[in-house]
Specification:
Blueprint (H helix, E strand, L loop, with lengths): L1 H7 L10 E5 L6 H9 L2 H6 L14 H13 L8 H12 L5 E5 L2 H6 L6 E2 L5 H12 L9 H13 L4 H12 L5 H8 L2 H4 L7 H10 L3 H9 L11 H11 L12 H14 L4 E2 L12 E2 L2 H11 L3 E3 L13 E3 L6 H4 L2 E4 L2 E4 L1 H5 L6 E3 L3 E3 L12 E3 L20 E3 L4
Parallel strand pairs: 1-2, 1-3, 6-7, 9-11, 10-12, 12-13
Antiparallel strand pairs: 4-5, 8-9
Helix pairs in contact: 4-5, 7-8, 7-9, 8-10, 9-12, 12-16, 14-15
């Protein structure tokens, strides 16, 4: 593979920092290609340390550098300033590292000093049809529906060879029971007809959400709470859905909620809204999943102001917000929730008292739990994993609606 060959070149082959860039429009499979390289045996045997870092559109440079250093050195650098972090990063990685970057922009690659990036192109026509056919039809069904095959080939041409769009529309049509009117509605969709010209890919992906059953729409939208590139387990997400009251048995007492949640999860997975996480070394004990970054963008566009992930630019939490993620937050708002002393992090009591209607709380790496935790009478999911506390407050026994309690590595 050409990319692996570039990574294997000696440092003298590069004039500056050795960087290889994979460039292409969203949905072409850049991240999948990077994952194949990352997990390649030749790459693994050539580098003692490998790190996988997701850089979102709105990123915190200090947090990003801090996470890279932690991965490289296993050292706590929480209190270092950016200039100190940059020096430490250079000391640990200078002359020892190669960087593989994925980006949608040739300009980004040019800014990094890369004149000849690896360009990812769309699938060829026959490859596109083969992928679409395998998803839209079950074994041999296409032979029974020549009219749909003709419509499907027209749809595939409009997908511009983008695998993510082909997979998404193929799965949407698979659930339409081969009704010609549904296939024609996709073919005649204005956003699909203008894909790549005036219309962004997100407008086409919206078709996958619009065709979801109502009970799956809120489950999918809730996933906007995860940071981009977040790796999650099936059971974790199902338990979160249960806590929010999104899962209802189809027949009274016929199934337990977790079994029904598994069916919800499998449905979203089969529609290509979730994908398997292919990076080895991350939660490798059981199969893990993540959302494609464009699918994550879709989820965020749907829930809009109901969900907020605290990033460095967020100054206050709007009143309309239903769900808040503090993941990776380093701003002043975070300090209202979590404080730090000589022993580490702990939850502020005033934070607890302001969340009495909360159903979910997930806080890691804290050394002290406030006694007021027992006042969260609506809490159904509590995850305090990786904490250094010795005892749980007695108030936990008053959480009469609690369904899930996680204390891993405590």
């Amino acid at each position: 593979m050409q990319i692996i060959g570039l990574l294997m070149q000696s440092p003298s082959s590069y004039e500056n920092m050795p960087i290889v860039a994979i460039v292409g429009m969203g949905g072409l499979g850049k991240t999948t290609l990077a994952q194949l390289v990352y997990n390649d045996q030749q790459v693994a045997s050539s580098f003692n340390l490998k790190m996988w870092v997701c850089v979102s559109d709105d990123f915190d440079v200090k947090l990003l550098v801090r996470n890279v250093i932690k991965s490289a050195t296993n050292r706590d650098v929480e209190n270092l300033e950016l200039d100190q972090l940059q020096i430490l990063l250079q000391q640990n990685l200078d002359g020892k590292s190669k960087i593989l970057v994925t980006t949608r922009s040739k300009r980004v690659a040019s800014i990094m000093g890369i004149d000849s990036p690896y360009l990812v192109e769309g699938l060829k026509d026959d490859e596109s049809w083969e992928l679409f056919e395998s998803l839209a039809f079950k074994n041999g069904e296409e032979k029974m529906h020549p009219n749909l095959v003709a419509i499907g080939k027209d749809i595939v041409k409009m997908c511009k060879g983008v695998p993510l769009v082909i997979r998404t529309l193929g799965r949407v049509l698979c659930y339409k029971n081969h009704q010609e009117s549904h296939w024609l509605s996709i073919k005649n969709n204005k956003n699909l007809m203008l894909l790549g010209d005036k219309i962004d890919i997100l407008a086409v992906l919206r078709l996958s959400y619009d065709n979801l059953p109502i009970h799956l729409k809120q489950c999918f939208g809730y996933c906007a709470l995860f940071p981009k590139d977040y790796v999650f387990k099936r059971r974790e997400l199902v338990q979160l859905w249960m806590a929010q009251g999104y899962i209802q048995p189809s027949h009274e007492n016929e199934y337990c909620l977790e079994d029904v949640g598994d069916e919800y999860f499998e449905d979203l997975l089969s529609r290509s809204l979730f994908g398997e996480a292919a990076v080895k070394g991350v939660n490798n004990d059981k199969l893990s999943y993540r959302m494609h970054d464009l699918i994550h963008d879709l989820a965020q566009s749907i829930v809009n102001s109901e969900v907020i992930i605290l990033t460095h630019h967020v100054k206050a939490i709007p009143k309309r917000v239903h769900h808040v993620s503090l993941s990776g937050a380093t701003n002043e708002v975070r300090k209202d929730f979590i404080a730090c002393d000589n022993y580490g992090y702990y939850l502020r009591n005033r934070y607890i008292s302001s969340l009495r209607c909360s159903r979910v709380m997930k806080v890691g790496f804290i050394h002290r739990i406030p006694t007021s935790l027992g006042k969260l009478s609506h809490l159904r999911y509590l995850d305090l994993s990786d904490g250094s506390f010795e005892n749980l407050p007695s108030g936990v026994t008053r959480l009469k609606h609690l369904q899930t309690l996680k204390l891993y590595n405590c």
